[in-house]
Amino acid sequence: MFKLGEMNRLTAVRKTEHGMYFSETKTEEETVLLPRSEVPADLKTGDVLTLFLYRDSSDRIVATVKEPKIRLHEVKLLQVKDTGKIGAFVDWGLAKDLLLPFREQTKKVSKGEEILAALYIDKTGRLALTMNVYEYLQTDSAYKKDDTVSARVYLISDNFGAFAAVDDTYSALIPRKELFSEIRVGDVITARVTEVKDDGKLSLSIRKKAHEQMDDDAEIILRVIRSYGGKLPFNDKADPETIKNEFHMSKAAFKRAVGRLYKERRIEITPDSIVSL
Predict the structure, then answer these.
(1) Domains of the chain (ranges plus CATH)?
(2) What is the dihedral of CA 224, 230, 236, 239, to 10 degrees?
C-alpha cells in the first residue's frame, strides 16, 4: 500500500509517454506515475527508486524524486506563499503548495511569514498542514531542570498558558501563572526549564530563579516609580492584577523586590504609596 506524504521504495514497471509507472512489487496491481520530466535518463523497468508520494492538482497520487521540506507527521518551519478564501498556501519544496486551512491556524498568518507546522492527512485523504503541532512534537529531549532553552510559541490557551516547541522539536508549556508579559504565537523566547514531566514534556518559565530575578524586578519597579514622578500611587498591598499590568510580574515577586529595595533604603513605603529615595 502506498504511503502518502512519505518516501516509498518502489519498482519501475511500465514506461509510457507520460512517464514511468511504479509499483510496490514487480506487478501492476497498484501503480503510481513518476512524470516524464523527472524520470532519470538511464531508468529501466525493474529498477528501484525511493520516491515521495503526494497528490497533484487533479487530486491524483503522483511520485517525485524531489525531497520535500516536510514529511508526514514531521514539524518544520515553513514559509507562507500566499493566502486565499480557504486558508493559506505554504511552500514545502514541491510544485504544488500545501494548504494550511483556516481551522488549523492558531493565529491569522500573512504572505511571507514563517510558521511552525506539522503535515497530516485530512478526512478527505489529502495532505495538509496544521499549526497546532502539540501531538507531533517529541518528548525525549535531554534537557534538565534549570536548563536555558529557546522555544517558539505555537498556541495560546486561556486555561493552560502558552504552548511552545523547544528547538522547534520538543513539547513544552509556559503555564498561565508564569505569563506576566505579552506573548504571541510565533514569538521565539528564551526560557528556563522548571520541570521535566514524567511523560517527557517540559514546563518552562520566562523568568529567572527567584533570587536571580529579584535584581531585575527591583530595577523595573524603580523605573515605574520614576515614570510616576518618584511616587507610585499604591503600595505593596495592591491587588495582583494592578501589579501584573504595571510591572508584568506576580504579586509575590513584586513584594520580594520591594522588600529588597526597602532594606537597601532606596524606597519608602507609605500607607498609600511607594516613594523612591
Answers:
(1) 7-64 (2.40.50.140), 75-134 (2.40.50.140), 139-205 (2.40.50.140), 210-276 (1.10.10.10)
(2) -60
59 torsion bin: left (phi>0), alpha (psi -120 to 50), beta (else): left
**What is the pLDDT of the chain when averaged over all its residues?**
91
In Å, how far are 47, 117, 159 from 90, measured between CA atoms?
Answer: 33, 10, 30
What is the torsional sign of CA 125, 126, 129, 130?
negative
- Which residues, including other chains, have CB under 8 Å from residue 182's CB and lie 6 or more apart? none
83-101 pLDDT, tens digit each: 999 999 999 999 889 999 9
276 to 177, 256, 273: CA distances (angstroms): 29, 16, 10
Sort strands 114-121 and 7-16 into parallel, antiparallel or unpaired.
Answer: unpaired
Report the C-alpha gap between 274 and 276 in whole angstroms: 7
Helices and strands, counts by H and E, the chain: 3, 18
| Mean pLDDT, residues 34-52 taken together | 95
Candidates 128, 68, 56, 64; CA nearest to 96 is 56
Count CA within 13 A, CB hemisphere, residue 172.
33
Residue-level pLDDT at 5: 96
CA distance 4 to 55: 8
* Pairing, β 267-270 against β 273-276: antiparallel
